[in-house]
């Protein structure tokens, strides 16, 4: 390691195949092994089963004219079925994007407009969301429903036996073409569509495995909207392990599943760890199979990490740092870095395999050394290809490093600490909250002249809650409760103004007229503290 660069170990695996060929070959290799388990239905499926259904779905998509230039979108919670169109899309070299059913119509409309899908697979409960969003986006796409529908094709039609299905081979594509699209959190504006190639995303999976994390039996709760779910799917196919899902996270249910299915790796957001450490009945369950608990995405205190270690005394607790644009940036290797892992609880580990990290001064872009705070910048073969049909040069510096927008530092042992975000967004629970999106809604209210939104601290578990400062067009023309109700009807649940509405006569701005969100927030917090 040089004085100003953190270098991860070299990636041992050389990616030469597309995502489609990879999933096809691995499904054949592990054909008789269990691939996935839905504990709600008490049903399991082998790799061979998943491959057969995915081949049939791929042929059905092919019959509808889907090619490598097309985008296939999913909007569904985790089920045994939703992996099938994902793998089928990879088989055809089509580009895949995922939405979350909890998103609002406003958000979904924008995301669909970014990718203009040819076909959308949607759960029955979210059909209205997709229909309304397509109408607002003025887009036409074929809709396929997981469940029953008299209006649209159903998923069951896609997995019927097909002629010559046994002769199917994945479409040959350039491994540097776009394979999967994720959506950014829109920290400085509206969300962007982040593109990973076949090459970059397979390297994300191999980097995760090389970090020493046991992926034989994985329990997670995130939908495929999140990059973590796609990483888990890929890593399970690398090792021939299986994924377990069970619906919304519940402490008793989680302990039961770990005990019954001998889970080896649990992935969950920091906020969810509190449910486990606060569960009084935890002593009744055997969790000795659980080798690794992986968490990340939001800060977590050293105290909570110690609590998790106490409850799961057989497990290594890994606080991982990553971003959608680059995959896993840093983590401790539980096999080789045991001492550091236990003595540096605030750290998110060392540079991941294949990753190069530098810290730069946010004003001068000068590369900094140990224990100097600046923006975290990364370079790796796991880094995104760019944004879908949009310029991405601003996301990189002149040396080709991705600018993460996170502020951090590394110590003399090369352990990385991420301490705050340069960007203006914040997190409530495990959700990114984008102030400008809520501000746009507020400005639709006829009584509001100006508005700014920021996060105010709620609790260690919840993070920050959305709070609004507004200037009314006419003093007293609207009450706080009316504004909160107006916003609630137009945003997702996590974007509600749980921090309240504060009426002011003026809002601080820069000379160019931009709202000074950070200064406004700090002033409000100072005034609140005085009360």
Architecture overview:
The chain has 531 residues and is α/β, with parallel strands linked by helices. Among the domains are: 17-31 and 43-174, 3-Layer(aba) Sandwich (Rossmann fold), CATH 3.40.50.980; 426-530, ANL, C-terminal domain (GMP Synthetase, Chain A, domain 3), CATH 3.30.300. The chain has 15 helices and 27 strands. Helix 8 links the parallel strand 11 and strand 12. Helix 1 packs antiparallel against helix 2. It is globular. It starts with 5 loop residues before the first strand and ends with a helix. The mean pLDDT is 92.
The overall pLDDT average reads: 92
**Whole-angstrom Rg:** 23 Å
Distance between the termini: 50 Å
For the largest beta-sheet, the strand count, sense and barrel status come to: 9 strands, mixed
Q: Could you tell me the strand content as a percent range?
A: 25-35%
- CATH topology category name of the domain at 17-31 and 43-174: Rossmann fold
Which strands sit side by side, in order, in the main sheet?
A: 3-2-12-11-13-14-15-16-17
The residue ranges in which pLDDT falls below 50 over 5 or more consecutive positions are none
- The second-level CATH architecture of the domain at 17-31 and 43-174 is 3-Layer(aba) Sandwich
Shape: globular
How much helix, percentage-wise, in residues? Answer: 25-40%
User: What is the CATH top level name of the domain at 17-31 and 43-174?
Assistant: Alpha Beta
* Helix vs. strand class: alpha/beta
- Secondary structure tally: strands: 27
Helical segment tally?
A: 15
